[in-house]
Design brief:
By secondary structure, the chain is mostly helical. It contains two helices and no strands.
């Protein structure tokens, strides 16, 4: 199931996430990876 939500971020963070995304991934994949890293203790 896909949900469209709007998450406000600064221009700088948007650009950093875009850099992580590259041209072969979607934002969902990048954010899912960041969440997984945070759960493993390397973040939040």
């Amino acid at each position: 199931m896909t949900t469209t939500e709007f998450i406000p971020v600064s221009q700088k963070i948007y650009e950093e996430i875009s850099d992580l995304k590259g041209s072969n991934r979607v934002f969902d994949e990048v954010i899912a990876n960041l969440v997984e890293q945070a759960k493993k203790g390397s973040g939040l």
